[in-house]
Amino acid sequence: MKKVLFTIGFGFSTLVQAQNYVHQAIILNEGYFDYQTNEILVPVTVGSYNPANQTYQVVDTLEGMRFGSDVLIDGNYYFVAADSKIFKMDLNTHQELASVTCPGVRNLGIYQNKLIATRGEYLTTYDSYLHVYDATTMTLISAIDTVQGPKWATQNVVVDGSNAFIAVNNGYEWGNEKGIIGKLDLNSLSYGNEIDLGPEGKNPDNLVKIGSFIYSVNNKDWSGSSISKIALDGTSNSTVNLASASTGCGTSALRDDKLVYQISMETTLNEFDINLMNNVGPISGHSTNYYELAQEPVSGNLYASETDYFSFGKVHLFDAQNNELSNFDAGVSPGTVVFDVRSSASVSEIKESISIYPNPTVDELHVAKEGVKHIFDLTGKLLFQSTDNILNVSGLNQGMYVLEVNGAKAHFIKK
């Protein structure tokens, strides 16, 4: 049974101690493009999952895009990289505010008001594999050419202070993959200081930053995989082989102080210790071939998506002990999951006193105030209402809620 803690205002404005919570998870579904017939059979969609009430809804369809590749949240906005465009969206209403054409866009990064976009596409040569845009107006600030910038297709990007570290993999020219980490100064927009990861570190696909190091998950020539550790100051780098098969496209993520990854076509989820730079071993509780992995930053739950790439998509949620908590249907090929984390400090203040007990409660909440009782989640969604003075709250999920009676409010928190 769940235990819920209620915080009460006693005749004066009281703010509940601020806590972070996940308002929503934004999920980019890549859809299904038939390269043989050159048809979009399932369009790219953006979905929003509300962990408080466990509901999912499609919030936008990106018509005419063959695939989607990345989502980045910044303040009240989020940016979507899809095929040949970057879209700027309102984080609350999901309204499309602006877009800019950027053929071959792959991944996104942001520093202050500069939006970094990496580029690459199969059998396509560009004169610039690195663009920087004004995040407000979505106008191009700089297209860093192949003389001054990366000479081959780029993939992931990690921003550390005023520097962006770029994975240069040339991953769309099979047999000529590269393993380079380049650095872009985001003040001067000058590129340089490339680090060669060597023959075992080719084709870096995913980058994560931990402390003063970057870790890259590399797919080599798609016949093997490795993990590289690169010092941010460029003084050292090392690479450890994982397996004689690739990790697929993006099937790796940072989970606490370890990297979790899955070898292409396998159903075992593996764990890699980034401090010791060696495999810890397979993780129990997983027997599904995943497409995307992402750790939710507040609860630590792991989101893992699966798909057959043409007809369905599903996202599974696991706790720290790898117990499956729930799952939900999403669009075809849910390939990127990012989290909209907010603070409870933005929730309305408590204006009047409400006498409620027991505190904390397990099943029943006694309310010593006449009137209609409303319980809301933090998004403002009404969960239920009653005129009773004893409310059954045993069915509530963990999290923070708001009780309102005739304008008086009290916040309650599941601890």
Plain-language structure description:
It is a single chain. 0% of the residues lie in helices and 53% in strands. The chain is mainly beta and 415 residues long. The protein has a five-stranded antiparallel beta sheet, with no helix packed on it. The protein is globular, with a radius of gyration of 23 Å. The chain has two domains: 81 residues, Immunoglobulin-like (Sandwich); 323 residues, 7 Propeller (Methylamine Dehydrogenase, Chain H).
Q: Which percent range describes the beta-strand content?
A: over 45%
The largest sheet is: 5 strands, antiparallel
What is the CATH domain class of the largest domain? Mainly Beta
What global shape is seen? globular
Share of helix among residues? under 10%
Structural class of the secondary elements? mainly beta
Please state the average pLDDT score: 88
Number of domains: 2
Q: How many helical elements?
A: 0
CATH topology of the largest domain: Methylamine Dehydrogenase, Chain H
- Quickly give the CATH architecture of the largest domain: 7 Propeller
- What is the radius of gyration? 23 Å
What labels describe this entry?
415 residues; Immunoglobulin-like; Methylamine Dehydrogenase, Chain H; 2 domains; five-stranded antiparallel beta sheet; four-stranded antiparallel beta sheet; globular; disordered N terminus
